[in-house]
Amino acid sequence: MFPEWDQKYSINNTKIDAQHQKLFELAARVEEISDRAIYQVELKKIIADFFNYIKIHFQDEESYMFKINYPYLNQHKLMHKQITRSMIKLIQSVKSTNDLKEKLYIVVNSWLIEHILQHDMMIEYWRKNNRHNKQEHNLEEEFVEPIKFLYECQCENKIYKIPYDIHLKMQYSKTQFKCKKCLSNLIYCKEQIKN
């Protein structure tokens, strides 16, 4: 099941949060149709709604990141392009209505929802912890430890805590890092922790 929108997913930008809420609603529609018969016309309408909405959302989100000087803007834009490409591929490679439903579910789950819950939340994390922003808005300084992403190798009980910038390189530029002991590639554990 896809998660439902919750205020804890807020990036404290009214426009972007409203768009994220709409994307969660569209995701819920995808989940709802995944278990029932559906006409191809209805399915195409949902895909068109998604596609049109993410284009607008991505532009607005990129403008917001530019405005706050988000340091990972270029990597984030790349992720947006990959999501858009996967939606286009999805539409072009359809064999049947059921095939389309399955692929749409995968794209929405692995790309969109994961993207919002992980990468868009990093925008807010960065904004909150940016000293310039804090001083500009007269907010109290507080030390917040950076988020690390967990990776593992073939060694028993060996976990690596990877910073976000390295995590982005490993996930989106296909850069590989190896364990010095077992020489295997590090594998993402899909968890993040505060250091």
From TrEMBL:
Ranges of residues in domain Hemerythrin-like: 15-121
Q: A GO molecular-function term, please? A: oxygen carrier activity
- The family this protein is said to belong to: Belongs to the hemerythrin family.
The name on file for this protein is: Hemerythrin
Arranged from A to Z, the UniProt key words for this protein are:
Iron, Metal-binding, Oxygen transport, Transport
Is the Chaperone keyword given for this protein?
no
InterPro entries with a match to the protein in the record: Haemerythrin_Fe_BS (IPR016131), Hemerythrin (IPR050669), Hemerythrin-like (IPR012312), Hemerythrin-like_sf (IPR035938), Hemerythrin_metal-bd (IPR012827)
Annotated NCBIfam families: bact_hemeryth, hemeryth_dom
